[in-house]
Amino acid sequence: MKKVIIARHAKSSWDNPDWNDFERPLNNRGLRDAPFMAQIVAKLIDKPDLIISSPAVRAATTCRFFADALKYDESKILYDENIYSNGVRYILNLLSSLDENIASVMIFGHNPDITSLFSRLTGEYIDNVPTCGVFGVAFDIDSWKKIDDENGKLLFYEYPKKHFKGDKSIID
Asked: Most CB within 10 Å of its CB: which of 10, 16, 50, 85?
């Protein structure tokens, strides 16, 4: 059994026109949602064997909130710029090349890749994984090389608005 947890970074700021896309930090909503969602997910999963994140500021910051909630040593987070720039096929290749001793991995990235991965890994179509959306998928496989062969079983799908319904502060 192999498990994949995929997270989209929390809401980022567009306040400074001098920031390039890679440098954009989390905005107030993102700073609220990331630790909140990290606590939700920490109740649903065990600490993953490996966490890999895009090094873009908004993804890396979101990742660190989750690492803290999951009691994962932040110095062991792997940052892979290809998650930021190379798309779904790269992430699937990354998964298929993982060490077989790893049973669970958590990846932090960006849309549209995260939404595409949801559909690709579960076989279920979804329009959009919102910012700070997180889903877990289990695969009845013994090797990461087989991850592209079949759909996994969706374990959970969590996102901030699922928990902040009717909360006017969710709109920045």
From this structure: 10
pLDDT at 84: 93
pTM beyond cutoff 0.85: yes
Residues 6+ apart with CB under 8 A from 18: none
Selection from 56, 79, 77 nearest residue 68 by Cα: 77
What is the pLDDT, as a whole number, of residue 172? Answer: 39
Across-strand partners of 38?
Answer: none
Instruction: Quickly tell me which residue has 């690709």 as its tokens.
Output: 120
Q: 170 pLDDT exceeds 60?
A: no
Domain count for the chain: 1
Residue 82: give the domain boundaries: 2-170
Q: HSE on the CB side for 17, CA within 13 Å?
A: 0
CATH number of the domain at 14, please. 3.40.50.1240
Among 103, 118, 113, residue whose Cα is nearest residue 159: 118
With a cut of 50, say whether residue 171 has pLDDT above it: no
**Assigned token pair, 131:** 């910012």
Both tokens assigned to 91: 């992430």
> Rounded CA gap, 14 and 19, in Å?
8
